[in-house]
Amino acid sequence: MALVDRIGEGLERLGGGVILTSVDALVDWSRGQSLWAFPMGTACCAMELIAASFSKFDFDRLGTFPRPDPRHTDVMILAGTITEKMKPAVRRLYDQMPEPKWVVAMGNCTISGGIFYYDTYSVVRGADEFLPVDVYISGCPPRPEALQDGILQLRELVAMESLAPGKEHPRELALPRPEGARYRREDPAPPQTADEGGDDQ
Amino acid sequence: MTSDEMLELIGRISAQHPRLYPLFSHEFGDAVVGVEPAELLETAVDLREAGFDRLLMVTAVDRGEKFVVVYRLQSRALTAAIFLKTQVPRSDPHVASLFGVWPAANWQEREVFDLFGIGFDGHPDLRRILMPDEFEGYPLRRDFEMPGMIRRPDYI
């Protein structure tokens, strides 16, 4: 468990609900301002992901900056068709990202398989079969503006997080989530052992 | 190369190599020659010596009772390209590997093996290349079925 989570436990034990709320607001604000991205570009959506990072669309002004190392990043942007053969590699890279971490599914292929939904023998029909996806961005491919809007929506979700385990702050979302949806999706395939997907082997 | 030149080329190659038989030639300049599977390897050596020094692609077609293995050959000296085809029975599909003639056949033949299940005798490393190693079946065969696959509603 990360140190900040233990700080949250301690603050709650002190009965400091007000203190915790203030700390949460600060932590969530700072996390939301610098969502460094791991560009998991597996197919053509990666072109729009690259375009979003360059000068015309300038992802950097939102604090989102592509890093090629999962250990440096907060959000994995799944851009492109995920095949059955690629699935273990994607999952392993996700497991190597430090907590807290989020997943953005960019494009129809990562949402549902897209045009490969029918008659496919090799394509994963939706990244949420094996990853806890937070934000879905439809399009084939989505424009860079749509991706950046997805990151802004993710920032709203980050603002709901609390350092206290199992707690979340109610916030008003620009695009409301379905009734009863939790901020954190359950991980559909959590690592079985502590060292799985962890350090280099 | 014009279609007349291509026809002439096919005639010349077929005359020099009696194992080859012309199958088809159309006005876009694509020549197609066929060969019996037992004679594929020595024919390939002949064609390479005749100037076809480059193997562009290997693929296959599912024709029901038979599989057609298709090779695309190019000659830089003749500035021409031809198709070389051979038919193998579905019950026992295997042909000789052309890795010794054109090393480019290595991964291409692995792909055909992976997706069609056609064996290549003498291949140095015949295992799946695109699909996961534990995958069962050959997905580009027409009778391929897989649990969990969702058929298009208008699938014929």
Topology of helices and strands:
The complex is a heterodimer of chains A (201) and B (156).
Chain A: H1 3-13, H2 17-33, E1 37-41, H3 45-53, E2 75-79, H4 87-96, E3 102-106, H5 108-112, E4 135-137, H6 144-158
Helix pairs in contact in A: 2-6, 3-6
Chain B: H1 3-16, E1 21-25, E2 31-34, H2 40-49, E3 54-63, E4 66-75, E5 80-89, E6 94-96, H3 105-116, E7 119-121
Parallel strand pairs in B: 2-5, 6-7
Antiparallel strand pairs in B: 1-2, 3-4, 4-5
Percentage of residues in DSSP E strands of chain A: 5-15%
Number of distinct helices of chain B? 3
- Please trace the helix and strand order of chain B, writing H or E for each element: HEEHEEEEHE
What is the CA-based Rg of chain A, rounded? 17 Å
Report the span from N to C terminus of chain B: 40 Å
Individual helix count of chain A: 6
- Portion of residues in helices of chain A? 25-40%
Q: Kindly estimate the percentage of residues of chain B that lie in beta strands according to DSSP.
A: 25-35%
Distance between the termini of chain A: 22 Å
Structure description:
The complex is a heterodimer of chains A (201) and B (156). Helices cover 33% and strands 9% of the residues of chain A. Chain A has helices at 3-13, 17-33, 45-53, 87-96, 108-112, 144-158; strands at 37-41, 75-79, 102-106, 135-137. Chain A has a four-stranded parallel β-sheet. In chain A, helix 4 links the parallel strand 2 (75-79) and strand 3 (102-106). In chain A, helix 3 (45-53) crosses helix 6. The radius of gyration of chain A is 17 Å and the shape is globular. Chain B contains three helices and seven strands, in the order H-E-E-H-E-E-E-E-H-E. Chain B is α/β, with parallel strands linked by helices and 156 residues long. A five-stranded mixed β-sheet of chain B has the order 1-2-5-4-3. A two-stranded parallel ribbon of chain B has the order 6-7. Chain B is globular. Helix content of chain B is 23%, strand content 29%. The chains are: A alpha/beta (201), B alpha/beta (156). Chains A and B meet through loops of A and loops of B.
